[in-house]
Amino acid sequence: MENNLITKDHETVKSFFFSLERILDGIENLVENCKPSLNGERYLTDKEVSERLKVSRRTLQDYRTEGKIPYYQLGGKILYQESDIEKMLNDNYFSSFE
Known about the structure:
Blueprint lengths: L10 H23 L9 E3 H8 L3 H9 L6 E3 L2 E5 H10 L7
Antiparallel strand pairs: 1-3, 2-3
């Protein structure tokens, strides 16, 4: 029977720690981007919505003023229901001409 010493420089150990780092990165990403829901609904800030829609926060303000997008205002904080954003996008979808 042969005894092999496995050190931190062994390929199997390196591979294990690399996989572990990838898993931890994924968990951190989930924790950062996952928001708890309230009655099954997620609420987004104007910053989050502007980043997702690739529009400025000023444009979102225009959408609110023009009644294009529903929102909640609590004090100075603006919140959007994620389902309302999806509905707005679906309502404004135009397919290409084929």
